[in-house]
Specification:
single chain, 115 residues, mainly alpha, 3-stranded antiparallel beta sheet, 50% helix
């Protein structure tokens, strides 16, 4: 739980037993929307074969990088080995998160929601 949530300085969403500040919750939703558009093979991290291959490897693993960004904001994800399975699980988790986001009863201090 973030300090801003504990102190009531910002609107916070409670999901999975964790308080997530509104700004982080909005970023999670944005990243979840991005996941929908990405191919399943991008959900697996790719190791570059050389320094010149770094950009290609980074772009190939954009789904995995987006998942890491989502987790840093507070939404825990499962990481199966298969890219298609990973995408499916993450999209279901995102859908659950969106349902919770849209339910006012999961929020505290809504008067402090970012404008």
């Amino acid at each position: 739980m973030g300090l801003a949530c504990i102190l009531g300085l910002t609107a916070c969403l409670t999901f999975g037993g964790k308080a997530i500040p509104a700004q982080d919750a909005l970023e999670i939703l944005d990243n979840c929307d991005l996941l929908k558009q990405l191919p399943p093979n991008s959900f697996i991290q790719v190791q570059p074969t050389s320094m010149t291959d770094l950009r290609r490897a980074a772009m190939a693993g954009i789904g995995a990088a987006t998942g890491e960004a989502i987790e840093k904001k507070g939404l825990l994800l499962e990481w199966p080995q298969n890219g298609a399975a990973r995408k499916g699980l993450w999209l279901r988790r995102c859908a659950q998160f969106e349902v919770a986001f849209n339910d006012r009863s999961n929020w505290t201090h809504l008067d402090r929601f970012p404008k």
